[in-house]
Amino acid sequence: MQYVAYVEVIGILGRLILGILIDALKNTTVQLDQWFIVPTSDTNNTALTVVSNVYISIKRLVSRYGGEVPLSDSRDK
Asked: How many domains would you assign to the chain?
């Protein structure tokens, strides 16, 4: 019975920590978007436009290739 309680507590804490990390990542992404993405009405400043375009390009690359990391397999060696 003690083992079941231990597993339940670890499971709940794991889900709680995972939820906090996902929420923090989402809030950070929203904040970075607000800082780096230039509104379309402010395109006169070329430095801000360049920073905005670089940020958007990096964000697209991370979203495209971020989940495609192959796992190492012992058969490949």
From this structure: 1
Q: Residue 43 corresponds to which tokens in the numbers above?
A: 């395109």
Nearest to 51 by CA among 35, 64, 63, 28: 35
What would the pLDDT profile of 33-76 be if each residue is shown by its tens digit?
Answer: 998 887 766 667 777 888 888 999 998 988 888 776 666 665 55
Is 74 a domain residue? Answer: no
Nearest to 56 by CA among 29, 34, 36, 39: 36
Three-state SS annotation for 8-44: HHHHHHHHHHHHHHHHHHHHHHHHHHHHHCCCHHHCC
Full domain range(s) for residue 59: 2-66
**77 within some domain:** no
